[in-house]
Amino acid sequence: MGQSDVVSPTPAPLTSTVGADVDLSKYDDEQVKLMEEMCIIVDREDKRIGANTKKACHLITNIMDHKLLHRAFSVFLFSADGKKLLLQQRASEKITFPDAWTNTCCSHPLNTPDELVEKDNLGVRTAAQRKLFHELGIQAEDVPLDQFHFLTRIHYLAPSDETWGEHEIDYILFIRPQHKDYIDFKPVPNEVRDVKWVDQDELEALLKEDNSDVIITPWFKLICKNFLFDWWKRMLSEGAVDKVARTEEVEKIYRL
Prior knowledge:
NUDIX_hydrolase_dom, NUDIX_hydrolase-like_dom_sf, metal-binding, metal ion binding, alpha+beta, 7 helices, Nucleoside Triphosphate Pyrophosphohydrolase
């Protein structure tokens, strides 16, 4: 992708954003603390241009008025045979998209030296490993960095409510560990409300339930609609997760 190594954090956040006065007192204390994390601010071509807090990056005012855009990732963790995908239901305590079903893990690389490394998407993969442990208690040795496979990037915008939303360039990562049929996990209660392994038919049925008693995150719906089932079938037919992505997909940012 022609990306270079980046190892030094941006010394100061962007200052052209608003929202410092938004009251967080009604939210879960742990989730509020996470709003202080520094996300990586990028332009439309995914070039790093600065950093800002998770809070600033997810305020609808900043997204709509300042076009604030940050880097993110979505992990899809499969069973060893590739037939099942692990989904999570986001905890009720989450500030954005609470109680929504989504892919295995979705979060952001941070503005830190190890997660800013762009060569071979190492920073994003490092962040994915970190968050799988933070949200689901999955040990690093069960999800080695070299087993994450990058497929493509999607650029999307989606409101959560009148205050919060997402505006991301989202790196899609597949991982299919071979040493266990199913990876061991222990969900963290104020991160994950529920989990389930689904096959393709079960996922299609779940997606059809959206807008009833089931809530699906917007990025997961976009990925499912545009890519996931073709990738999944390709992975099973090729027999290996590293053969899923096509060159044009890896090199492109899809605007969804």
